[in-house]
């Protein structure tokens, strides 16, 4: 018993020690809890929020593009996609089989779907089919009970209702390329598209809008549980262009199968009413995705369907350049409008012979008949007397040789050659023969159809430096202000000289001897003036001339001349200017002038010059749509 | 003799029921109810699949507890070794027929229920050691030869559990064994020798650890080093605890647990969930309840007049305390993640049952506290 008592005492002592030890351990726990839950609480609360709250970007809706009357040119179309959520279907393969019976799914896409499903988490929807039509949507909805986990998802895709008639101006949107990433997370959203060319590119930021954000609560595997808050962002701005969609379509139709460009511009405001380039392409196809073969065919087509010829096609202006030569002569005082030259079909310089387009020659010519009948010899003579630098100076004043800064990407500068330019780029001295050739708009001189239309507008609007533009308003991301009343500066050129040139251009169309008389407009208040031009692609060589090849039609298509016409109307109170270029179309009078006539007629019928205010109405887009 | 006052060979069952420590039973029920609430929350506000089943288990366990408590303590003394070897055999059979879960063989599939022999082992080892030391005087204990048998009694199950491999339970068995050695009166310097010896053995033991055990220990040392890999559990648990703050996020409102950032929230990390939803206040309340239970166990041990009861009550209380401590220390990042349930709260049948049976024994010790069971009782019984 004594031993038991000793043992009991030892036990009691040691049990008390253990109890004390337990208290120490519990104190450690309490201390740790205090540290974590009180001292470090804020830190861990933040980490917990970082865990559960995820910021999702909400892509903004891209702005619409409408024409000057509010007709839609680029809109967003609802795109019905059908997706499958793997975790919501007991048997993916079986569901796909059932789906195939309703909307066929090819073996290829079936494999893609199964591959994506195996790669992604089970709650991430995988697209089965895109761009469903209404009938397919309805059929899927009706069969929904047999298709567990299959859902219709509504997205938006860019759609261009005018299809190919405004394609070059509008451009297109496409997924962001690696090189276009700017750090803006919006661009990294799968499926996000940005403007790749045309207006879509120029005004991309405004059209794009600002991405919104959605704060969502996610669980440990990233599944969204609920939305906590949402910033809707700013939808893209709607954009109104100065184009008249119907006129644009008319111009495209009028160009028909030819490759070429038509630009119609308001000579006072600079509004571009039509900017046609043929052949076109269907921008919707870009959004659907082109096959490799379709893309190659577009790129390799010699007629350049992807090319906006109105701003990036560069052509020798041909005889349409003669107005510049005439003005250079008149303004410098070297020649007067009564300066006379005898045309016998050619002119000789040294031992070279420079031919007039008219084999027999025009006889005695002065300036107005020289332009009216487009006598080459007359302008060889004037150019020789005036010299290249004066010609270049005058042409530059009117807009040759430098891009106009139109609100489209890819505008070309054209080229106004000078002696200095030649020395600098080709490292050869300027030849006088080149001055002669430049005098009839051939040789090095190049201009885009837009430049030609603008030069024409500046010639007939009283010498004002009108600047063409496509967006109706001054557009910046987040704001759009109406264009101020245009205050274009005057070009340094006398009214008297301009009067000579405009008188001649009126005669080109309206006098029986004029080169475009056959294309005159008989309605007196819509009558047109202008100038024909033929842009040599390749000079007819002496041997060819001897072999009898003189006519354009004898040459293969790609060597034929370009047909040009610059026109304006109404002839006595000019309001519209037009430039028509038909690639390899032959003579300007035969090919281009009739197109210009029809387009100007259509322009005036659609918006009679007299009935319009000087600057067209600035109604907001929404009202214009009504 | 004071001891003889209630020293009757048989007590009346009614007397025993009257003598039941109802307050302790109530405490256990309160703690278990907190567990039901947490399991209800872990299932996002549903009794399925955990809370309802846990309640049934608690019911069964509580009945078992009362039955065990009423059984004459001497019966347990008599069959202590039998129970020990039976559960050791069961533990050994895990090697052969056990089911694997979470990288370790821990369960035996018995038709409708899976049994975890290592949980049972905690009970029977305490029983066996209590019986062994019951028969020894301090003089005996002072002789090292008398310590060989109890050492084997501890090391054999610990080694088997370690092979499963279940580091936490093995450590727990060793600690419980150590506590009983200490209570029995083994000299402190012997503990020191063992401690130093095991320090030397650590590098050797390291070789035998599985890779995942090594990573667990390594990530314990620096959990933030690999936040999405092995340290994820500890880090997420600490975030959950810390973000709970003083008063917590509210019942069913724990973001870490409900959004599944917290792993194993219905078993090992259930304390984290409680502390996230009820803050440090809730954590303190639960720990306080546990302490009350432990204090009860301690007082029962101290009031017992026989060494077997004292060692049994104290050993079981110690096992309970150590389980609680190791689990909470683990979820708070104080010790490595060892995979240890929180007694009475974590979802799990065997643990619930063995814990309650353990307290049945403790209450049994209370009821039979005044029995005189001599050191040489077996000899006397013949």
Describe what you observe in this structure.
The complex is a heterodimer of chains A (626) and B (382). Chain A has 626 residues and is α+β, with helices and mostly antiparallel strands. Helix content of chain A is 38%, strand content 19%. Chain A has 23 helices and 21 strands. In chain A, strands 2, 3, 4, 5 and 10 form a 5-stranded mixed sheet that branches. A 5-stranded antiparallel sheet of chain A has the order 12-11-21-20-19. In chain A, strand 2 and strand 3 form a beta hairpin. The longest helix of chain A is centred in the N-terminal third of the chain and has 38 residues. Helices cover 69% and strands 3% of the residues of chain B. The N terminus of chain B is likely disordered. With 382 residues, chain B is mostly helical. Chain B has a 3-stranded antiparallel sheet with strand order 1-2-3, with helices on one face. In chain B, helix 4 runs parallel beside helix 7 and helix 5 packs antiparallel against helix 14. Chain B starts with 12 loop residues before the first helix and ends with a helix. Chain B is built from 16 helices and 3 strands. The chains are: A alpha+beta (626), B mainly alpha (382).
Spans of chain B with pLDDT under 50 lasting ≥5 residues? 1-7
Class derived from helix and strand content of chain A: alpha+beta
Give the % helix of chain A.
25-40%
Mean pLDDT of chain B: 86
Element layout with pairings:
The complex is a heterodimer of chains A (626) and B (382).
Chain A: H1 2-39, H2 41-52, E1 53-58, E2 65-66, E3 72-84, H3 92-102, H4 107-119, E4 126-132, H5 134-142, E5 150-159, H6 167-170, E6 173-175, E7 193-195, H7 198-202, H8 204-208, E8 212-218, E9 224-231, E10 239-240, H9 245-255, E11 260-266, E12 272-278, H10 283-288, H11 292-300, H12 309-312, H13 322-332, E13 341-343, E14 346-349, E15 352-355, E16 363-365, H14 367-372, H15 376-386, H16 388-398, H17 419-425, H18 432-439, H19 449-460, E17 473-476, E18 479-482, H20 495-510, E19 529-535, H21 542-547, E20 562-569, E21 576-582, H22 588-606, H23 621-625
Parallel strand pairs in A: 2-10
Antiparallel strand pairs in A: 1-8, 2-3, 3-4, 3-5, 6-7, 8-9, 11-12, 11-21, 13-16, 14-15, 17-18, 19-20, 20-21
Chain B: H1 13-19, H2 22-42, H3 51-70, H4 73-97, E1 99-101, E2 104-110, E3 113-115, H5 117-134, H6 138-142, H7 148-163, H8 167-184, H9 188-208, H10 211-221, H11 232-244, H12 255-258, H13 270-303, H14 307-331, H15 349-367, H16 377-381
Antiparallel strand pairs in B: 1-2, 2-3
């Amino acid at each position: 018993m004594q031993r038991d008592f000793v043992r009991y005492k030892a036990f009691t002592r040691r049990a008390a020690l253990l109890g004390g030890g337990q208290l120490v351990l519990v104190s450690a726990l309490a201390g740790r809890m205090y540290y974590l839950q009180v001292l470090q609480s804020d830190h861990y609360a933040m980490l917990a929020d970082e865990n559960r709250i995820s910021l999702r970007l909400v892509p903004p809706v891209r702005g619409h593009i409408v024409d000057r009357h509010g007709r839609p040119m680029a809109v967003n179309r609802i795109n019905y996609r059908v997706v499958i959520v793997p975790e919501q279907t007991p048997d993916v393969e079986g569901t796909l089989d059932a789906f195939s019976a309703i909307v066929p799914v090819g073996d290829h896409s079936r494999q893609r779907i199964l591959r994506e499903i195996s790669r992604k988490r089970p709650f991430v929807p995988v697209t089965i089919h895109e761009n469903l039509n209404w009938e397919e949507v309805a059929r899927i909805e009706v069969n929904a009970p047999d298709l567990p986990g299959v859902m219709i998802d509504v997205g938006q895709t860019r759609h261009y209702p005018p299809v190919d008639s405004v394609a070059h101006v509008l451009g297109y949107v496409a997924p962001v390329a690696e090189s276009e990433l700017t750090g803006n997370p919006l661009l990294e959203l799968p499926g996000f598209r940005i403007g790749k060319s045309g207006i879509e590119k120029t005004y991309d930021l405004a059209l794009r809008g600002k991405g919104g954000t959605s704060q969502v609560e996610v669980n440990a595997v990233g599944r969204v549980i609920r939305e906590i808050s949402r910033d809707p962002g700013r939808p893209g701005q709607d954009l109104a262009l100065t184009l008249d969609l119907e006129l644009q379509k008319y111009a495209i139709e009028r160009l028909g199968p030819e490759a070429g460009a038509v630009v119609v511009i308001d000579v006072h405001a600079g509004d571009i009413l039509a900017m046609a380039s043929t052949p076109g392409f269907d921008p919707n196809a870009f959004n659907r995705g082109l096959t490799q073969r379709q893309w190659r065919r577009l790129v390799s087509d010699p007629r350049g369907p992807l090319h906006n010829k109105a701003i990036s096609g560069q052509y020798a202006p041909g005889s349409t350049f003669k107005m510049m030569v005439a003005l250079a002569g008149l303004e410098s005082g070297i020649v007067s409008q009564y300066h006379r030259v005898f045309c016998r079909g050619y002119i000789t310089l040294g031992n070279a012979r420079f031919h007039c387009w008219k084999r027999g020659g025009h006889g005695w010519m002065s300036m107005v008949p020289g332009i009216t009948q487009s006598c080459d010899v007359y302008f060889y003579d004037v150019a020789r007397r005036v010299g290249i630098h004066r010609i270049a100076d005058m042409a530059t004043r009117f807009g040759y040789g430098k891009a106009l800064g139109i609100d489209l990407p890819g505008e070309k500068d054209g080229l106004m050659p000078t002696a200095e330019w030649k020395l600098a780029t080709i490292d050869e001295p300027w030849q006088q023969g080149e001055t002669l050739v430049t005098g009839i708009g051939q040789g090095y001189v190049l201009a885009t159809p837009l430049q030609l239309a603008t030069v024409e507008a500046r010639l007939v609007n009283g010498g004002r430096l009108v600047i063409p533009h496509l967006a109706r308003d001054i557009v910046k991301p987040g704001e759009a202000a109406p264009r101020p009343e245009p205050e274009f500066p005057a070009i340094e050129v006398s009214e008297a000289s301009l009067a000579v040139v405009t008188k001649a251009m009126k005669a080109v169309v309206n006098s029986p001897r004029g080169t475009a008389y056959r294309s005159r407009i008989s309605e007196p208040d819509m009558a047109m003036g202008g100038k024909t031009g033929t842009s040599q692609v390749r000079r007819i060589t002496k041997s060819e001339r001897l072999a009898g090849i003189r006519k354009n039609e004898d040459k293969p298509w790609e060597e034929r001349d370009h047909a040009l016409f610059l026109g304006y109307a109404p002839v006595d109170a000019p309001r519209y200017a037009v430039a028509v270029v038909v690639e390899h179309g032959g003579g300007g009078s035969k090919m281009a002038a009739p197109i210009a006539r029809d387009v100007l007629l259509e322009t005036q019928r659609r918006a009679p010059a007299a009935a319009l205010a000087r600057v067209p109405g600035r109604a907001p887009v929404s009202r214009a749509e009504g | 003799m004071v001891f003889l006052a209630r020293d009757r060979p048989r007590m009346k069952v009614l007397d025993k029921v009257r003598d039941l420590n109802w307050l302790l039973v109530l405490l256990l029920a309160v703690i278990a109810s907190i567990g039901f609430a947490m399991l209800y929350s872990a299932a996002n506000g549903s009794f399925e699949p955990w809370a309802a089943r846990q309640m049934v288990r608690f019911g069964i366990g509580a009945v078992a507890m009362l039955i065990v408590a009423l059984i004459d303590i001497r019966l347990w003394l008599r069959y202590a070794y039998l129970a020990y070897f039976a559960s050791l055999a069961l533990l050994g059979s895990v090697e052969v027929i056990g089911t694997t879960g979470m990288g370790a063989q821990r369960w035996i599939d018995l038709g409708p229920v899976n049994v975890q022999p290592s949980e049972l082992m905690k009970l029977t080892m305490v029983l066996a050691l209590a019986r062994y030391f019951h028969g020894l005087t301090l003089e005996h204990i002072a002789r090292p030869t008398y310590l060989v048998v109890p050492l084997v009694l501890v090391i054999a199950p610990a080694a088997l559990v370690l092979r499963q491999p279940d580091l936490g339970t093995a450590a727990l068995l060793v600690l419980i064994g150590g506590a009983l050695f200490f209570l029995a009166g083994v000299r402190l310097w012997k503990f020191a020798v063992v401690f130093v010896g095991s320090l030397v053995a650590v590098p050797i033991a390291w070789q035998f650890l599985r890779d995942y055990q090594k990573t667990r220990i390594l990530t314990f040392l620096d959990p933030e080093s690999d936040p999405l890999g092995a340290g994820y559990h500890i880090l997420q648990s600490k975030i959950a605890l810390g973000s709970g703050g003083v008063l917590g996020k509210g019942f069913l409102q724990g973001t870490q647990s409900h959004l599944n950032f917290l792993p194993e929230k219905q078993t090992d990390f259930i304390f984290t969930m409680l502390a996230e939803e009820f803050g440090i206040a809730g954590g303190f309340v639960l720990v306080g309840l546990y302490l009350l239970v432990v204090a009860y166990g301690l007082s029962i041990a101290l009031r017992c007049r026989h060494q077997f009861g004292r060692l049994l009550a104290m050993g079981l209380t110690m096992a309970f305390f150590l389980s609680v401590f190791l689990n909470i220390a683990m979820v708070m990042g104080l010790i490595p993640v060892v995979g240890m349930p929180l007694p009475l709260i974590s979802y799990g049948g065997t643990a619930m049952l063995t814990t309650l049976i353990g307290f049945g024994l403790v209450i049994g010790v209370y009821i039979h506290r005044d029995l005189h069971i001599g050191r040489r009782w077996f000899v006397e019984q013949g």
